[in-house]
Structures are given as C-alpha cells and as structure tokens.
C-alpha cells in the first residue's frame, strides 16, 4: 500500500534547522494493522501526517498504491484524502451543534460512497443514541461516533493517533475491538500511534521511532487476542 523511501522532514526556525523525520524507509502492506511507538517528540504524528496527506512539506518518496504523494498539488491531495484516508484522534473532533446522526452524515458528504448512516451506527453500537448531541455522550461513545464518521467514507487506510488515550480501559478495549474488526473483516489498513506497549501484541507489526528514525520494525508472528492483553 505504502512504499516510503528516504523520507526526511525538517523544520527551520531562522538559522536553526530541526530534523523531525530522518531517512525513513519502510513499506506498509494492504490490510496491515501497524502500531507505531516512540517517546514524545520522536516524530510519530509527523510521520502519520505525511502518510495521510495532511503534510506536504517533506523530502524523499512516499508512494501510495504506486502514486507519488510528493507530486500531488493541494487539490490532488484533498482528493487523495477524501477517497482513501480517515483519521481518528485522541480528541474526537465532533461538531457540537450536530447530532450523532448528523456528525456521521458529514463524513458521507465528504465522499460519494452510498453507505447507510443507520447501518454504520448499528455497527458501532450507537443506533439508540443517534439523536443525541456530543455533550450528551461518554468519551467512548464520542470516539465511536468519530469511528462511524471515518467508516462511512469507506477509507482504505485509517490513521489513529492515540485513539484510546482519553478512555478508561474497558471502553478503550471496545474501541480497539472495533478497529480490529474493521481491519479483519474489511481489510482496512490501520496505522496507529500509541504509547500503550500492550497494543503491540495485537498488531501485525510494530515500529519503534526515536529522533525521527525507525529504530526497529518487529513482525508479530502470533498476534494476541484483545482479551489476553493487559492495559
Ligand atoms: N509546526 C512545527 N514547527 C516546529 N517543530 C515542530 C512542529 N510540529 C512538530 N514539531 C517538532 O517535531 C518533533 C516531532 O513532533 P511529533 O508531534 O511528530 O512527535 P510525536 O512523536 O508524535 O510526539 P507525541 O508523542 O508527544 O505526540 C517535535 O520535536 C516537535 O517539537
């Protein structure tokens, strides 16, 4: 799905240049569940933003299904994101004045796919909450709305940046189960930044980053069940 070669990125502040991504070369397969770990400031979010087309300022090659993201202009990048990508963040980024149903419907407008909002809400277990507003929901319910809004686009890749960081352990497990099911049942590629070491056990592969570099890439020959991991 992704072929990344010699990806570099730096920020300049006057005379000082700060290398944030440092010669990253890696491939990511279709249908992978990939975890990315590393200390704060190691470049995880920046890496996600480049792959997801939110950040166009980089050097090197980032190929998505053979297409060079570096060659896209802003308009092509918007189309790329709409057709292929969904993001889920620790903060849910829901629109406060819209109901659950309407928040998910917004995702549908962004892409012309004809999925049913009700079906997606049923899938994430929110059907009976569809007329509520975000401030009437728990954190886990809000994250499920965010996932439903992502799903309705029918993305090929879901990027998750600490998707369960703000949730208690049992709610977090429910959210992870939803992401794992999507990955298995619909072959959606999931690329997830996390600080939770336990989550590497359920991932096909995990990457450790440090100072903008990939320190190690480990394949999980036998992934664990969600029920088997601690939190
Ligand atoms: N807009 C910016 N301008 C300058 N430096 C930036 C900018 N955005 C990020 N950085 C720097 O890039 C580095 C990598 O940041 P990034 O957010 O990718 O790290 P991270 O590994 O995701 O961290 P965390 O786990 O804390 O979210 C950090 O040193 C950060 O200060």
How do you describe this structure in short?
With 231 residues, this protein is α/β, with parallel strands linked by helices. The protein contains 6 helices and 10 strands. The chain has helices spanning 44-51, 74-84, 100-109, 117-123, 139-151, 169-186; strands spanning 2-13, 16-28, 33-37, 59-64, 67-68, 85-89, 157-161, 189-193, 205-210, 213-219.
What this model shows, in words?
This protein starts with a strand and ends in a 12-residue tail after the last strand. By secondary structure, it is an alpha/beta fold. The chain has helices at 44-51, 74-84, 100-109, 117-123, 139-151, 169-186, and strands at 2-13, 16-28, 33-37, 59-64, 67-68, 85-89, 157-161, 189-193, 205-210, 213-219. A hairpin with a 2-residue loop joins strand 9 and strand 10. Helix 3 runs parallel beside helix 5. It has a single domain, classed as P-loop containing nucleotide triphosphate hydrolases (Rossmann fold, 3-Layer(aba) Sandwich), CATH 3.40.50. The longest helix has 18 residues, at 169-186. The site of adenosine-5'-triphosphate has 11 residues, from strand 2 and helix 1. This is ABC transporter ATP-binding protein. GO terms for molecular function: ATP binding; ATP hydrolysis activity; transmembrane transporter activity.
């Amino acid at each position: 799905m992704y072929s990344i070669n010699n990806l570099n990125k730096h920020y300049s502040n006057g005379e000082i240049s700060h290398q944030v991504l440092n010669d990253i070369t890696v491939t990511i397969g279709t249908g992978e569940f990939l975890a990315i770990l590393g200390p704060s400031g190691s470049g995880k979010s920046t890496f996600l933003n480049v792959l997801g087309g939110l950040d166009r300022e980089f050097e090197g090659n980032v190929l998505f299904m053979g297409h060079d993201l570096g060659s896209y202009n802003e308009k092509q990048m918007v189309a790329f994101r709409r057709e292929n990508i969904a993001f889920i963040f620790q903060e849910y980024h829901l629109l406060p004045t819209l109901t659950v149903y309407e928040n998910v419907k917004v995702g549908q407008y962004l892409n012309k796919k004809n999925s049913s909002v009700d079906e997606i809400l049923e899938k994430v277990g929110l059907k009976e909450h569809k007329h509520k507003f975000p401030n009437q929901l728990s954190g886990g319910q809000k994250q499920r709305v965010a996932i439903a809004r992502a799903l309705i686009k029918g993305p090929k890749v879901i990027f998750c940046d600490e998707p369960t960081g703000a949730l208690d352990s049992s709610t977090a497990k429910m959210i992870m189960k939803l992401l794992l099911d999507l990955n298995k049942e619909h072959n959606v590629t999931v690329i997830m930044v996390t600080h939770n070491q336990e989550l590497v056990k359920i991932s096909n592969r995990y990457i450790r980053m440090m100072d903008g570099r990939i320190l190690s890439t480990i394949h999980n020959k036998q992934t664990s069940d969600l029920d088997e991991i601690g939190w």
